[in-house]
Structures are given as C-alpha cells and as structure tokens.
Design brief:
77 residues; mainly alpha; 3 helices
Length: 77
C-alpha cells in the first residue's frame, strides 16, 4: 500500500463508475465521468470530512481562512 486515501478512491471509482458502465465512445465516458465527479464532490457526504461533501468543506475552509486573515489584520489599541 502506497497511499491509503488514493487507493481507497481508486477502488470506489472502479466499483461505482468503471465497473457499472460500458463506454462505446470517449465522449460518452467523459459525460458519465463528469456526472459521477459532480456527485462525488458536491452531493455525496464523506465521513472523513464530517459527513459533508468536499465542495462544502472547501467553502467552509475558505471562509474560515478569510475571516482569520481579516481578524489578524485588525489591531486592537
């Protein structure tokens, strides 16, 4: 095992996407992948992120980082 997170993702991707479809064209594969990727990143909750989708986790992280940056630039006299 080299990287548990990547190997876990690759297994899920194969089980949930590649093994479920028979692609006849590259365009068909791209469309199916785009749909799966949107579900995986924007809809499906991930247990490692507190049961929220990665897109929501990233948004919360950006908001927290920007509010930390703003509060660190305010000087209290």
């Amino acid at each position: 095992m080299q990287n548990g997170y990547i190997e876990s993702f690759n297994g899920k991707f194969r089980d949930e996407h590649l093994n479920e479809h028979w692609f006849q064209t590259l365009q068909q594969a791209r469309l199916a992948l785009a749909s799966w990727r949107k579900d995986y990143n924007e809809i499906r909750p991930h247990s490692s992120l507190g049961r929220i989708p990665p897109a929501q986790f990233a948004q919360q992280h950006r908001l927290a980082a920007s509010s930390d940056a703003v509060s660190s630039t305010i000087k209290i006299d």
